[in-house]
Amino acid sequence: MTKLRISIVQYLNTAPLVWSFTNGPLRGKYELSFTVPSQCAEALQAGAADIAIIPAIEYQRIENLVVLPDLAIASKNRVRSLLVIAKRPIEQARRIALDRSSRSTQTLVKILCADHWKITPDFFESPPDAAAMLEEADAALLIGDPALRLSIAIESRAKPGASGEQVCEGARAGMAKIETLHVHDVAQEWRRMTDLPAVLAIWAARRDTVTPEVAADFLASKDYGMAHLAEICAHAERELGLASPTLESYLRDNIDFTLDDENCRGLEFYYQRAAELGLIERAKPFEWAEAKSEAVRVSSKP
């Protein structure tokens, strides 16, 4: 039997969702590939993958997908791995560089600019090199492990600033000669604006491939990963060069791996606002993959 193909984001925050596939009882059952979020979505759209963890916004742009229930990468408040860093107060930013590897967070930032910071900057995509991005722009979006490294590097030097922002004196992590940065946690700013969580990525599958047994495997993999966070972080410590307790705190305290009711409300509002701003054509409702003995569920409104 041909193995189902799974496309996975190669960031620390996805590891608990797939640890059983990579290092546990489900190892070898599926064909795995690892890349950045935008490429996961493209693999699913092109038919090169059957199931993928995709930027949440891509569910609105790819047809014939179902969402695996109760699984996500989300944040209830501060996430630490999605940062907008600016050379001046963000309200003065006229040009913002966007990490090209994330589409959901790009959309989050555009909504925040319109609704929260009340600015209309020019946006452009860029590789995730903070110093290079800030040479070309007033502010930059960084995501994933590079953002987490920067966040951890500057936290020890951070001082509280106005309106919840952090003005980081002497931050040097890849910042060349820039001595003062205004650092905004994207999920935290979203929470301030909406009083809702930010859902960053979801598991999605082509409608004709996922079965209740497959959905159960993904739920089981998440449970296995959450039970092995110490092992995951010890492994990541060697790769990322960051202390295991710090990484475990990030996964436990900053990332939420569920699609509970509150997260679904946050995601629905995100889709609605993205549609109103013309960032997607429309906000279609969720269609859920069948899980165990449950029937496919479709939300009553987008």
Task: Write a compact overview of the structure shown.
By secondary structure, this protein is of the alpha/beta class. It is built from 10 helices and 12 strands. α1 (15-23) links the parallel β1 and β2 (31-35).
Can you characterise this structure?
The protein has 302 residues and is α/β, with parallel strands linked by helices. It is 37% helix and 23% strand. The protein has helices at residues 15-23, 37-46, 104-115, 130-136, 144-155, 186-194, 212-226, 229-240, 244-254, 261-276; strands at 5-9, 31-35, 51-55, 65-75, 82-86, 95-99, 122-126, 139-143, 158-160, 166-169, 180-185, 198-206. A 7-stranded mixed beta sheet has the order 7-6-8-5-11-10-9, sandwiched between helices. Strands 2-1-3-12-4 form a 5-stranded mixed beta sheet. Strand 1 (5-9), helix 1 and strand 2 form a beta-alpha-beta unit. The protein starts with a strand and ends in a 26-residue tail after the last helix.
